[in-house]
Specification:
Strand content: 25-35%
Largest sheet: 5 strands, mixed
Number of helices: 3
Helix content: 25-40%
Shape: globular
Low-confidence stretches: none
Number of strands: 5
Mean pLDDT: 96
């Protein structure tokens, strides 16, 4: 669940609250669309539960999207969705994570915009 991943102590500490995040297809209408950006991240899953590994790698992917948003001058990321193996999965409640014995991975895509 997105809610769990966004509410980990690490996510609350590291995600920049000045960049609005809108998951799924029902985000606000932007004043200006800048670019669409995608990221694919993997993490070592050894000695972690699947949930811990997925939340950690989700945060890593979100930080990449936020860094790109800041570089582009965006104040929001809309239409954030899972894009594992280039297959879009839109949801405002869940993200897709694949966990194996040693590696967990998350791929996200979002549109960097100016709302104001």
């Amino acid at each position: 669940p997105l809610k769990d991943a966004l509410n980990t102590p690490a996510a609350r500490e590291k995600l920049d609250s000045s960049i609005e995040l809108h998951f799924g297809e029902n985000g606000p209408t932007p004043a200006k669309t800048l670019i669409t950006h995608s990221t694919s991240r993997k993490t070592n899953g050894f000695n972690k539960t699947d949930k811990e590994a997925c939340e950690w790698v989700f945060l890593s992917a979100m930080l990449v999207l936020q860094d790109r948003a800041i570089e582009a001058g965006a104040d929001a990321i809309i239409n954030i969705h899972s894009n594992y193996q280039h297959k879009a999965m839109y949801s405002d409640e869940n993200y897709e994570c694949h966990s194996g014995t040693f590696v967990s991975g998350v791929a996200l895509k979002g549109t960097l915009v100016k709302l104001k």
